[in-house]
Amino acid sequence: MVANGERVQSNRKCRRVKVKSQGNTIIADVYLLNLPGYDAVLGIQWLKTLGPITLDCNNMILQYREGDYNRILKGLKQSSPQHVKASKSLCKPGQLFIVKFSSLSSEPSSVVDNHELTALLHEFDDVFKEPTGLPPPCPCDHAITLEDGTCPVCLRPYRYLYSQKNEIERLARELLTSGAIRPSNSPYTSPVLLVKK
């Protein structure tokens, strides 16, 4: 069972995985779970290996002894309501202590197969269809008013391979046909795909 009360099955286990956090090296047996957004969750199984611990919920500090050393893990102080709710529940007996490791450059996790989500997406699939035309007209059109006497800007087109020419023309035709774009009749227009704007 994970922190939100949901039961997650795992039939794979990695023994003695080393995790470094805040200068501490944590060695724990970990179960492989499909939990998007979490690299590791250290739960009650890990806490049992530490022996006596001190948990200061007000200062978000977990302290334990490892050999001759005192080890300290500090939690992130955030003001979000979810964090406050979670920190209150952590102080109740029998709850888990959660550690979340995040990487700033992490790849998006794969989405868990959720039948309710799939059913919801199918129910509203018309919202997610490819557009077949321009959006509804607005009460006023957007216009950029130029100063009198302004001449059209002349820019050199981007260079592209001849092999890309057919694909660019095909995409432009497809977008025009579907109504997603329309030809411009402005004297200042230039091919968006080919000129730096």
From TrEMBL:
Question: Which Pfam family is an annotated match for this chain, by its short name?
Answer: RVP_2
Q: Which SUPFAM superfamilies match?
A: DNA/RNA polymerases
Query: Signal peptide: which range, if any?
Result: none
**CDD domains in the record, alphabetically?**
retropepsin_like
Q: Which domain of life is it from?
A: Eukaryota
Could you identify this protein by its name? Answer: Uncharacterized protein
